[in-house]
Every structure is written in structure tokens, then in C-alpha cells.
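Working notes for the structural subgroup meeting. M.R. asked for a predicted model of this chain before we commit to crystallization trials. I am recording the input and output together here so anyone reviewing the notebook later can reproduce the run.

Input as submitted:
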Amino acid sequence: MIGRLNHVAIAVKDIAAAAATYRDVLGAKVSQPLAQPDHGVTVVFIELPNTKIELLEPLGAASPIAKFLEKNPDGGMHHVCYEVADILSARDRLKAAGARVIGDGEPKTGAHGKPVLFLHPKDFNGVLVEIEQV
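Returned structure, recorded in C-alpha cell form:
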């Protein structure tokens, strides 16, 4: 059901500083920051030959990333994102297998402009999982 790894997301306090580290120290291609108000974050994508790193900075105090950073003040890995061909079919199959979908179960538009859903970390060995329709 799942396809390739789309990205690994890292929560950061200062997206400009984190992006500079990837660009200037590691020599990676770094996108411009993009505000995602529906998700409460600003994102930057680090382009790698085989996947992406998504840097997440809170967009306001109510952001889920702000809450994550309260518990993890140095930042850290927030989630992994896998590609799926049909997000509704994947959702239904996952729910039938006992996985919990976070939120109302309806896909939202993610940073790539494609439908996404998040799956509860307690069902995936402590890792928050995002699925994205490609």
C-alpha cells in the first residue's frame, strides 16, 4: 500500500537558521519558506536525490509544532511521510486494520498541494506517520 518515502519532517525553532545549516554546511538545495496556515506551520523543503527533508517552524502559539517544541526544546524529528496512490482507499484499509487517523479522517491539502492524512504514533511504534496521495 505505501510507496516511497516522501519526506522526513524536523521541527525547528528557527527555520532560517536551520535552512542555512542545510544550505551552507551540507550544500543542499533549500526551498523558500512557505506558510501553511491550515496546518499552523511554516515549511522549508530540503531537496535530496532520493527524498526530502521538511523543516517545520510553528506559525503561531496554537501550532502543533509549538507544542512539540515545548516538549522538545532543541527540536527533532516530527514525522515521516509515505506516498500512497489513493488516500481514501489507504485510509479505509488502515482504519480496518485498527490504525487511528488523527482529526476528522478527511484529507487536508498538504504543503505539496496534495491530500494528506496523519496516523496516530501509538499505532506506528511511536512515530507520527503522514500519508500523501501522489
